[in-house]
């Protein structure tokens, strides 16, 4: 129980459990959805939120038939309670490490591009931290992921349209990924030689895709294509590409694998597109990761650096494969 009554200017009295429940309601947008997620009855959760509002001395939610929306005071409390709960989790992990306790937990989110690092990074990490439990979730963007908004990840790997600024404490650039338009074998769009010739194609796009497509076409003085299909699952992307003549921007360095595994082929444009994704490691504060989360991030960095070296060697025709260093 947090009791601030010793200070006459601070009269709040609430538990960390109440803050955690409050964060869940804010994340899920309604008491009913949060109660279902937490395995609680709705009256139990409602009572806890009323107690918290009584302690704060102000309403935290605007309740309606559509759900529970945070008041300005609720938004402020959510922002600071996320930081407080995350700091306590880091403190618990650090104290456990200092006292010689094994175990711990790392929660991570990965975009499709970031997930390619896992097969090599995971064995590296588990070789030195076999007792640490891991939670992995596929994400498309930090902006619309409720677990990221709730502060439930140690870090996430996402694909961004813009590189992070120098000194950014929340985003770190891991690598740049050139993209190439691809379609299935036999597609009529393989005859296209310009972006303008693909104007009537059906474009399959991830969440960032519409803005990327708009930028590419605007750069050539074109309007963005009208036929766009948003697809947030990479497996569904490949299913649609194999079943239709749709076009999708995919990683240039993955062309050999995509040709062999999915029979997808690059559209041979006369001028390559300046299409680029920036794969970033993001956290509320990259300098405040727990020790085990920091080590997993180091493993991912090492694997990405090794992949980048191999890609450069392949482009220059250097013989052999370079070995990645252990983190």
TrEMBL record:
Q: Name one Pfam family in it.
A: HTH_1
Record keywords: DNA-binding included? yes
Sorted keywords for this record are: DNA-binding, Transcription, Transcription regulation
Write down any Gene Ontology CC term: cytosol
Gene3D superfamilies (alphabetical): Periplasmic binding protein-like II, Winged helix-like DNA-binding domain superfamily/Winged helix DNA-binding domain
A GO molecular function term, named singly, is:
DNA-binding transcription factor activity
Chain ranges of the HTH lysR-type domain: 14-71
Q: Which SUPFAM superfamilies match?
A: Periplasmic binding protein-like II (SSF53850), Winged helix' DNA-binding domain (SSF46785)
The family classification in the record reads: Belongs to the LysR transcriptional regulatory family.
What is the protein name for this chain? LysR family transcriptional regulator
Organism name: Bordetella trematum
Taxonomic lineage is: Bacteria, Pseudomonadati, Pseudomonadota, Betaproteobacteria, Burkholderiales
Gene for this protein?
A: abgR_1
